[in-house]
Structures are given as C-alpha cells and as structure tokens.
Fold this protein.
Amino acid sequence: MPPKVKFSKEAVTKAALQIARKDGMDAVNARAIAAVLGCSTQPLFREFQSMEQLKGEVRTLAMGVYEQYILRHMVGTDKPYKASGMAYLHFAKEEPRLFQLLFMYEREKEPETTQEDHTLGYILETLQKSLGLTEEQARRFHLYSWIYVHGMASMIATNYIVFSEEDMDGLLTNAYLATKLLFEREKESLKQD
C-alpha cells in the first residue's frame, strides 16, 4: 500500500489562497486545491473540518498579504496617510480577487471581530500626529476618507473604471483636502461656541 500523502495546514491554505488570488473565493474547493497540490481530495480534510474553516484561514492569510502591502507603502514616505490610500487603490488593481475577498462581500452573518485590519492603528496614529486630531477625530476623518477611497478601489477591482496614476493621486489629494477643511471648520465652530 502506498504511503498516505500528508500536507500541512499551511500548504493547503497557501494552495487555496493561490486559487482565490487567481479565480476568486468561489473557485476554492477541494478538487481545485487537490489539483494545485497534486493529490486527491482526501488529505485536505485531515487538517480542516470543513471548507468554511479553510476559507476562514484563506481570508486570514489574505488579510496578512493586504496588511504587509499597505505598511510597506506607508513606511519611509513623507506622506504616509496618502500613501496608505494609494496603496489601497493599487492593491485593488494588482490583487483584485483578494481585494474583493476582503472588502467586497456580505458581512451580515460574520462576527464583528473577524478580519480585523491591523494597519488601522498605525493609520490613525499618523493622522493624529500630522493633523493634531484626537483619536475619535482621526477615526471620523479616516472613515470619511476611506468611504471615498473604497468607492474608487471597488471600481478599480471590478474594472468598472480605469484611473491613471495621476487621476488617483489628484482625486485622493482633493478628497483629503476637502476632509481636512471640514475638520478645520468644525474646530473653528467649536472655538466660537
């Protein structure tokens, strides 16, 4: 009898991520993973109790790819907040399936704690330092900006629209300046009260 083929949890998850990256999460199934690994489907379920468990691990791995991508673009630049927005747009362009996997799915039944973005703390800290905002103000500022940037990124990830590098840069700058002006006016109105 030939020896049983055994793959580590990490190998199975990486194979599933490879499929999700190329064809989306709907293409992730036991047959597709087995084809990537060159085995039957049986060894896959020694490490995972269900496909849902495996897909959860794929999402976690994809979030790690995203976080590294964002932080790599923010570090060492004189405009880290803008760099985070540009990186988000580039991630949507370069990794559209992973972007859709992480940011374009129905979350109604998902527990609130899943898929936490670990870059958020660094982004908020950057805003607080550069604009002199409180943590709560930085959260609101980022929410206003992120809604705009996410809309652009969603259009990019679905090929709804193609933005040039100059368009992305200019649109992000305008959105940032508009949000900054809103917060400056808010501060002024608080001083007058």
Summary: The chain is about 70% helix and 0% strand. Residues 165-192 form the longest helix (28 residues). The domain at 1-48 is CATH 1.10.10 (Arc Repressor Mutant, subunit A).
